[in-house]
Design goal:
With 217 residues, the chain is an alpha/beta fold. It has one domain: Rossmann fold (3-Layer(aba) Sandwich), CATH 3.40.50. It has six helices and nine strands. A hairpin with a 4-residue loop joins strand 1 and strand 2. The longest helix has 14 residues. The relative contact order is 0.17. The structure holds S-adenosylmethionine (SAM).
Length: 217
């Protein structure tokens, strides 16, 4: 077992506090530790917890699943997912959930671009993901998946946090091709503009953006 640490996040305001402990694995694979985008999306969830309570939410490519765990602790019904071909990531989601008292989490193996399995899913009010646009070779598969999920779920939106790694990367033409539109959500609007969210050292000095993506028609 390569388990090395557990990272603590404490979300709080004047009235409520929610503590989340995320186990992390010492492996180079992407879904094994918490990326700087995750606390930003989790902060968005925390800030909007009265809206998301009772919502049915899908977290795509959850990795260590911090945003989904926060949503579940705030009363949402959360389905988690990661790549079908990465069983260790799926197991990692289970570990994060169980470490935070979420028993029998619902976890789906969903691979970007493989839309056959999407019809097995229930209806979602919100789909979210942190740091899934990190490999331009996968952008179209991911956008196709998002477009299909939005088509299948009336009035649903996709919220994602994104780490800027290369300013030449552009998804505008793919959004247009798959009839989607993106709107930036200012980090300051949900107190996601701190370099140390929820008492952690994340996102640090990385440049993070938040977007809402919906069908353009
Ligand atoms: C940069 S990590 C982000 C993980 C987590 N959301 C976070 O922010 O900490 C990218 C995630 O995408 C997942 N992933 C990579 N390729 C994938 C694919 N083809 N289909 C679905 N998920 C994939 C990885 O397993 C990993 O969980």
């Amino acid at each position: 077992m390569d388990l090395v640490s557990s990272r603590k996040f404490v979300f709080s305001d004047e009235r409520y506090t929610e503590e989340v402990n995320i186990p992390e694995i010492a492996k180079a694979e992407y879904g094994m530790y918490t990326w700087p985008c995750a606390p930003v999306l989790a902060q968005y969830v925390w800030h909007n917890r009265s809206l998301i309570r009772n919502m049915s939410i899908l977290e795509l490519s959850a990795g260590t699943a911090l945003p989904g765990v926060v949503a579940a602790k705030c009363g949402a019904s959360v389905h988690f997912s990661d790549c079908r071909e990465f069983p260790q990531c799926l197991e990692n989601i289970r570990r994060s959930c169980e470490s935070n008292g979420i028993q029998r989490p619902i976890i789906h193996g969903l691979t970007w671009g493989n839309i056959d399995h999407l019809s097995d899913l229930p209806h979602f009010d919100l789909i979210m993901s942190s740091d899934c646009f990190y490999d331009p070779h996968c952008f179209e598969d991911l956008i196709v998946t998002i477009a299909c999920l939005l088509e299948m779920n009336n009035d649903c939106k996709f919220i994602c946090s994104h780490q800027e790694r290369d300013s030449s990367w552009n998804i505008e033409f793919l959004l247009h091709k798959w009839k989607l539109k993106a709107t930036r959500i200012p980090l300051i609007s949900f107190h996601g503009d701190s370099s140390a969210i929820a008492g952690s050292e994340l996102p640090g000095n990385h440049t993070i953006h938040m977007f809402e993506i919906v069908l353009s028609t």
